Here is the input.
Amino acid sequence: MGNVKFGDHNGVPSMEITAGNEITTANNINFANGTIEFDLEFIGRIHELLFSSTERRRNRIVYLRNHPDDPTATDAIQYAPIIKKVNMWDMYPNYQTAANFKKGVWTHIKLVVSGVQLLVYVNDMNPTLVVPRLEGNTKDGGIAFAGKCFVSNLVIKPNQVEGLSPMGEFDPVYNDNRYISSWQVSEPIDFPAGQECSNSNPPAFATKWQKVTAETQWSH
Here is the structure.
């Protein structure tokens, strides 16, 4: 691929990603649950790891951002889903945290994915970012990288989740029937003026409906 070079970087066999916006996909990988580990050295400021799909229109992304002048920047690590081509990065401010990345230094990254949970480790035995409920409608797919960087020692361990439960966080309003967490949405219907939808003029019996369920944090 034109945006990837393979060779040694500081004596370490590495993959150099030279294009900032192109996606570099691992071949013949279908990942759902397990562990992804690799060493990363920044060239640019932002690196992306895409997992559970390699399509820009639907995906799960972990952003790694190098802030050389501000190691406390709260978006250094961020998880975001892409749903129907819409990157939801600004809808989940609770899924980001700080990390002290540095240029010219290898950083060890580990992701553990189990069901709807995600842990991200950075040079530590304790998780740096905890995502108790992965959002979106993607459950499995490929693994890909984006952003200028060096990557080495990539290890993918399918289904090795290190004891992480596949269940998401408990919903504290699950038993509270004052909250509407599920409803039905119809297909678009053209009601002529003066004949708007009402109890006496409901949608036709053959109208198609789709169930919609609120995400956990929005149902609180």
Observations:
- The chain has a mean pLDDT of 85.
- The CA atoms of residues 57 and 85 lie 4 Å apart.
